[in-house]
């Protein structure tokens, strides 16, 4: 039996506390535009907003609702740089590439903060995120990480151990941590909804419940949805893990992966005791846990990866044991929300930017750390459409390979690899 695709936000804490809920119409008939953006997540809406600010007539096609995908469901952690860090980029792709990407490693974060300020977006922005080491080897890795980021210009880093660590996170699981004071956390659905509203205020149009069914390349390109056709001079594909079955060229070198989040009931003082300075935390394990307090004082806790993007039968059964391992005192706490979302993983964990044609661009595959990079992608897409291609091409030039095992075996092989690395984490080697 084929499943009908979902078309409304998942029942998450974010959807329950969204600042704007009005549905938008779907596309009907034939509409012309300068640029059609497919997908209304961070990548799509960031691109659309940057382009609208530059005077382009932009139309966004969204299969479901603005922020339906990972952008409206994620951990909300503003993590700087990329999923594979600058040392790996230096080793694998050379110093020139590393310098080009390193110059942009902290820009997505700055874009988010300037958007929030410029458009007065209410999304519970808080400063500071913390990478927590579960063993001595991870702590050593964090020291190297600090030196690396400092070399690329981030001076807002601080190593914490002992009492200083306890002042930030009162879990016994960690031997130390690296704080990035320039990072932070926020309500991601409200961030994307706020930027969508800013885009519309500039004259941009968003059609919801309007999935792209077929792209006919050409100048202009034609994009068919169930109710109509968009005729566009340029196209931006920003469907990430949710754009499956329409553009096969984008699927060969990436894999959708699921991860799950729960949110407790509001914890008040108990919550503040866990994270006294309200920073976001992610640990350094291969299969990492990530958590933070929400604007109304709940613990939002995520973790786990399902390769291929299949949802577990019970999300709470997956995440509650992780939460209790970190904070055993929360055994009596009620879980109010539990949901899942898909991100797009690449083999080298670096984002995929590129062109399918002279006038069709894409950006995807942030491999689990996409809050900042998707915002950077939007700016770079606007630049390349205006003819400034250097920064976009620094990403587009990165080589990408298919996952070993092809579509059939990539999921079990990746799970096997993850089991190996998770075992090493457990053993601290
Ligand atoms: C549970 C979870 C937790 C995460 N936590 C963090 C975190 O804390 N920090 C961090 O940095 N990153 C995190 N990430 C990753 C981050 O959320 C993503 O990298 C980022 O949001 C990707 O944005 P996007 O716009 O590219 O994709 P998405 O937000 O997935 O948006 C794609 C959009 O395209 C639409 N679409 C798909 N197909 C079509 C079509 N045919 N026609 C029209 N529209 C279409 C979808 O409906 C969707 O709205 C997390 C991801 C998940 C799933």
Give an overview of the whole structure:
The structure is a single chain. This protein has 429 residues and is an alpha/beta fold. The chain has 2 domains: 13-73 and 189-253 and 348-398, FAD/NAD(P)-binding domain (3-Layer(bba) Sandwich), CATH 3.50.50; 126-185 and 255-345 and 408-429, D-Amino Acid Oxidase, subunit A, domain 2 (D-Amino Acid Oxidase, Chain A, domain 2), CATH 3.30.9.10. The protein has helices at 13-16, 42-53, 86-93, 95-102, 107-118, 136-151, 162-166, 188-201, 269-274, 315-326, 371-385, 390-396, 406-427; strands spanning 29-38, 58-61, 77-78, 126-133, 157-160, 176-185, 205-207, 214-216, 221-224, 228-237, 255-264, 280-283, 289-293, 299-307, 335-345, 352-357, 360-364. Helix 2 (42-53) runs parallel beside helix 11 (371-385) and helix 3 (86-93) packs antiparallel against helix 4. The longest helix is centred in the C-terminal third of the chain and has 22 residues, at 406-427. The protein is globular and about 60 Å long. 49% of the residues are buried. The mean pLDDT is 93. Bound molecules: flavin-adenine dinucleotide. Flavin-adenine dinucleotide binds next to helix 2, strand 11, strand 15 and helix 11.
Give keywords:
binds flavin-adenine dinucleotide, eight-stranded mixed beta sheet, 429 residues, 2 domains, 17 strands, FAD/NAD-bd_sf, FAD/NAD(P)-binding domain, single chain, globular, FAD-dep_OxRdtase, 13 helices, oxidoreductase activity, D-Amino Acid Oxidase, Chain A, domain 2, Gamma-glutamylputrescine oxidase, oxidoreductase, alpha/beta
Furnish the topology, listing elements before pairings.
Elements: H1 13-16, E1 29-38, H2 42-53, E2 58-61, E3 77-78, H3 86-93, H4 95-102, H5 107-118, E4 126-133, H6 136-151, E5 157-160, H7 162-166, E6 176-185, H8 188-201, E7 205-207, E8 214-216, E9 221-224, E10 228-237, E11 255-264, H9 269-274, E12 280-283, E13 289-293, E14 299-307, H10 315-326, E15 335-345, E16 352-357, E17 360-364, H11 371-385, H12 390-396, H13 406-427
Parallel strand pairs: 1-2, 1-10, 2-7, 4-12, 10-17
Antiparallel strand pairs: 3-6, 4-6, 5-6, 8-9, 9-10, 11-14, 11-15, 12-13, 13-14, 16-17
Helix pairs in contact: 2-8, 2-11, 3-4, 5-11, 11-12
Bound molecules: flavin-adenine dinucleotide.
Flavin-adenine dinucleotide binds at residues 38-44, 61-64, 68-71, 73-77, 79, 211-212, 238-243, 246, 259, 261, 290, 302, 341-343, 364, 366, 368-371, 374.
């Amino acid at each position: 039996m084929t499943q009908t695709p979902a078309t409304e936000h998942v029942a998450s804490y974010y959807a329950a506390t969204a600042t704007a809920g009005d549905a938008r119409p779907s596309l009907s008939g034939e509409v012309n535009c300068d640029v059609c953006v497919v997908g209304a997540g961070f990548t799509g809406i960031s691109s659309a907003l940057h382009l609208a600010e530059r005077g382009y007539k932009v139309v966004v096609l969204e299969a479901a609702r603005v922020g339906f995908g990972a952008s409206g469901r994620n951990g909300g952690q503003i993590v700087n740089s990329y999923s594979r860090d600058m040392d790996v980029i230096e080793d694998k792709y050379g110093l020139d590439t590393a310098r080009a990407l390193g110059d942009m490693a902290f820009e997505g974060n700055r874009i988010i903060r300037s958007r929030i300020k410029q458009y007065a977006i209410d999304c519970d922005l808080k400063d500071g995120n913390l990478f927590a080491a579960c063993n001595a080897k991870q702590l050593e890795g964090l020291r190297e990480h600090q030196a690396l980021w400092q070399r690329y210009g981030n001076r807002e880093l601080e190593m914490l151990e002992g009492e200083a660590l306890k002042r930030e996170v009162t879990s016994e699981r960690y031997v130390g941590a690296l704080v990035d004071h320039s990072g932070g956390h926020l309500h991601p659905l409200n961030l994307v909804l706020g930027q969508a509203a800013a885009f519309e205020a500039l004259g941009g149009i968003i059609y919801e419940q309007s999935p792209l069914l077929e792209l006919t390349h050409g100048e202009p390109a034609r994009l068919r949805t169930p109710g109509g056709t968009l005729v566009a001079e340029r196209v931006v594909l920003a469907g990430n893990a949710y754009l499956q079955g329409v553009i096969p060229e984008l699927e060969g070198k990436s894999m959708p992966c699921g991860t799950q989040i729960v949110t407790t009931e509001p914890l008040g003082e108990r919550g503040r005791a866990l994270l006294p300075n309200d920073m976001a935390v992610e640990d350094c394990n291969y299969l990492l846990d990530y958590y933070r307090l929400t604007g109304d004082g709940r613990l939002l806790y995520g973790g786990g990866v399902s390769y291929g993007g299949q949802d577990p039968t019970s999300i709470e059964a997956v995440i509650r044991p992780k939460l209790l391992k970190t904070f055993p005192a929360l055994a009596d706490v009620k879980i109010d929300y539990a949901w899942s979302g898909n991100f797009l993983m690449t083999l080298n964990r670096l984002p995929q930017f590129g062109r399918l044609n002279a006038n069709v661009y894409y950006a995807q595959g942030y491999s689990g750390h996409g809050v900042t990079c998707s915002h950077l992608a939007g700016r770079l897409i606007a630049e390349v459409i205006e003819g400034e291609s250097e920064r976009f091409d620094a990403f587009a030039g990165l080589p990408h390979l298919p996952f070993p095992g092809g579509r059939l075996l990539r999921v079990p092989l990746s799970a096997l690899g993850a089991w190996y690395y998770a075992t090493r984490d457990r053993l601290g080697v």
